[in-house]
Structure formats: structure tokens, C-alpha cells
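FW: tagging you since you asked about this chain on Friday. Here's the raw sequence from the shared folder, copied in full. Didn't touch anything.
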Amino acid sequence: MAYRAPHAFRALLRTSHDRGLSQLLGSSRCYSRVIPNVPEFNCRGISSFSHKGQSTFVLTRASALTLQEKKNAEFLIFSNWARFMTTQVKAPPQARQMGAFQVTMLSPGIVYEPYAPRVPIPFWKRWFTRSGWTRTKEDIILELKSAYAIAKLRKFGYSKKEFYEEAIKLYKEINFLLAHGDKKSLRKPVTEKMYSTLKNDIKMRESMWSKVYWEMIEPVVKIRTLRARLIGVDRKDVNKVFIQLTLEFITKQKFEAYDSNGNVVAGDKNKEVLVRDIWVFEKSLFHKGSYWRLCGKIVL
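HL: got it, structure written out here
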């Protein structure tokens, strides 16, 4: 009898797998490719099923089970896997605060193809060597990607002048909030991942200086777009994309830092300093009411 139990269990498991998982969840082998670190569901192994916090091994003979018991066994298998699949993804904090009922990606969480300056190559090398031809091809592809992203953005009412005005406003606002350590107000103009980074920067700065004076002299010396990229999040819908624009800011700033006694320990607010920053701004093209946010800084 002890030797027959595993055979009966395998028969029952195959039946429940064919009826439940194949119809409702699809192939378990397919899900094991999508979700990392999840072992494949092996129909020939002996597994336990959890129901209301209790684990139970099914070791009864198939012939001894009634139709209702087989349905109960199938339900245990399905409910266990369904519960596992629905608890792996949690909505970001911002989505939970907004009371969203569906998990929505508010930001990709990465800077796609971060900007890096291209090293100049001689004219003869670019046009008369194989490596030069390859480099020229790469440069053309990079420029075409930016042109396509800007063309896509223009369909949503993009204006270069208006965007630059908004970007300068965000640049000034975020730097002001950083200087004053206003973490609460900093949440809105930056993405979730960037907020964590800036929060750590504020913590590090406060451990060194008690207070900081910061001022930007307007107008800005220079602002230009270095790169534009689209990030798709749904292969079935090409309109579900985020756009990232990498901007270069060259501005004149005043800076001064104080210790706990009010003594100046760094900088001089009477002197203007020329500062170059490269920031990446991001916006969703498929969320209603979306707006530009800082998603990354590039240090060269």
C-alpha cells in the first residue's frame, strides 16, 4: 500500500494539472521562464498543498476518491498557485496612496541608454576604415533614435521652448528643495527611484553641514537636448511608452555651507560659479495627467 500511494498521487496531480492550471494559468513551464527564481512545477514530484495555513500531502488512492474530493483537490492546487501569482507584484507607494485598484507602472525605474559623449575620430579613419564605417553607422542610429522619439513626442503637443521653460523651473525647484532638505515636497518632481537617491544625498549632506545657501542666477547660460529615448512597456500596444529627455544645463550659481554654529565651512555666496549638470527627465505618454519628472543624473 505504501508503494501505491505515490502512483495514485501522481495520477491525481496530472488530472488536476490538466484541468486546472492548463486552462486557468497556462503551462507551468511557461511561467517558470517569466518569473525568476521560481522552480518548474514538476508533475512527477511529490508536493504539498497549502490551504488556510495548513500543509497537506495527498497520498490516498485515486480509486478511493469521490468526484467531490477530486474537485476539492483541484481547487487546492489552483488556489495555491493563484495566490502565489497575485502576491508577487505590489503597487508602488505612489499608486497605493492614490488608491489605485490596478498595478500601474509609474516609471520604468531606469535611465535607458544613458548619454555618454562620443570620442571624436579623424576624418580619414571615419570614412576609409572598417572601424570608422562601423562607428559612423552607430552614430547615425543614435541620432535616428532621438529624432524618432522627438517626432513621437510632438504628436502629444511637445514644444521645445515650453519644455525648456518647464525644465529650468524643475531644475531650480529641485535644487532649492535639496538645499533646504525638504524631503516631503521633493516627492512630486522626481521619480520613486530618484527620490531614494536624493533622500540619501540629503542625509549625507546634513551629516556634514547644518545649513546650505543656494541660488541660481537667471537666465541660464545654456540648455540643450543631448538625447531622447522611448521606453515601451507593452509589446501589444506601441502607444504605451515612456519618453526620457537628457538635458544639459550650464548655469551660474551661488553656494555657501554652514556648520551648527553658523560658521561658513564651504563656498562663498558672493561669488558666482559656473556649473554644468546633465539631468534626465521622464514622462509617460499613456497616463492621463502625467507630467515631467527627474529620473536620473549623469555624471561624466
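FW: The beta strands are 49-51, 54-56, 211-232, 241-258, 264-284, 293-297.
HL: agreed, and The longest strand covers residues 211-232.
FW: great, closing this out.
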